[in-house]
Amino acid sequence: MTDLNMLIYTLQVVFCVATLLSLVRLLSIPQPVSYLPLLWGLGVALIAWRFGSEQHLFYSSDQGQMGNNILTFERDGVSLHSEVLLGRRDMITIPAWVLWKAGMYPLLAVKFLQAVSLLLTITALIRALPPVVHLALEKHRLLWLFLVGPSLVFNSLLALRDQVLVAGVTWFYTSSRSQTKAVWLVVITLLRPHLGVAVLFSLLFARLFSKLKITPLHIITVSLSAYLAGVILYVMSANVFYNNALTAPSLLSQERALRLLAAFSSLNFLVVDESTVDQSFSTLLLARIVFYDTWLIPLVFAGVILVFAQTASPVQLRVLFGFSLFAGISSETDFVSSRQLTPFFPIMALASLATLVEARVKRSQVPSES
Fold this sequence. Notes:
Blueprint: H1 3-26, H2 36-51, H3 62-76, H4 82-87, H5 90-101, H6 106-128, H7 131-139, H8 144-147, H9 150-155, H10 162-174, H11 178-191, H12 193-206, H13 216-242, H14 254-265, H15 281-290, H16 293-307, H17 314-330, H18 338-341, H19 345-369
C-alpha cells in the first residue's frame, strides 16, 4: 500500500469502529465487551500497517479468495446455481460487494461484516442468559473471557466466513422463534453445508431424548454415536456428490475414539496426517495457549454435561449432538481443525456457565431452607 492508500484505509477503519460503537449502544451490549470495537479497529489497523497489500496472506490465504469473490460477483452478478452460491459464498460476498461499491476496501468490508457478526453473537448470548448468570457476569466480569474468548475476537480480524457461522449457530440454538432459526440455518448451510446439516439434525435428534432420564452413559453414547454417524454421512455424501468409492469406514477403532477426544480438547493436529498440518508442533501448541477457549470451552462443556447429566437441558443435548456430528463429518476431510469447530464454542460456554452458576446458587440456598 502507498502512504495515501494506507491513510484512506485507516480512515475507513475509524469509520467502521464508529459504526460498531453505535451498534454496541443500539444493542445494549454491556461492559467490558462493549470495548471490543476499539480492540477490533486496533487489530485490523495493525495487520494492514504490518502486511500492507499482502495482508490477505496473513494467517489464511482464503482471505484473498474472499476478495476475488467480490470481483467475480461484480463481473457475473447474481446466480441461483448451487455451485456458485456455495463456492462464491454469496451470503457474505453480496453485502461485502455493496460496501465495496460504496468505497470500502474489499477485505475491510468482509472484516467489518465479521465484526458485526461478533456483536450479533454477543447479543444472542445476552438475550439467552438466565437472570442468575446476568448477575454473575456483573459481579465477576472476567467470566466474559470464557463466553467471548480470544479465538472469536481473532476471527473477526480476518476476511473469512468463520464469525458469521459463529453468529448463525449461536442464534440457531438460542432463538425461540422458528423464523429466526430458519433464516440462520439457510445462512449456515450456504456458507458451510455440512455444518448446516449438523445443526439441523441436532434439532431433530433432541426430541428423541426429551422423555428419557439422561445418565452419563447416555451422554457418552450420544456423543460417540453422533460422531460415527458424521463419519458415515460424509462417506455417503462423498459418493453421491463426488462419485467417490463407497467404502465402509473403520468405525469402532482406537483412532476414532482419539479423534473424538481431540475434537473436545482442540488437539486435532495430533491425530491427523502430518501432510495436512502447515505449522510446527511448537507453533500449534503456543496457539492453544493463546487461544485457550478452543480447548477450555469444549472440555468444560463435556465435564458439565457429564456431571449434571440428569438435569441436562434440550439445548445442551442438541449442542452435544451437533458438535459431535460435525466433528465426525469434518474428521474425514483434509481441513479438520479447531477453527472449524469454533461456531459451537459460544453456545457451549453459555450452556456450561448457566449450569454451573445455577448449581452454585442452589447449593447456597440449601442451608437457609433447612
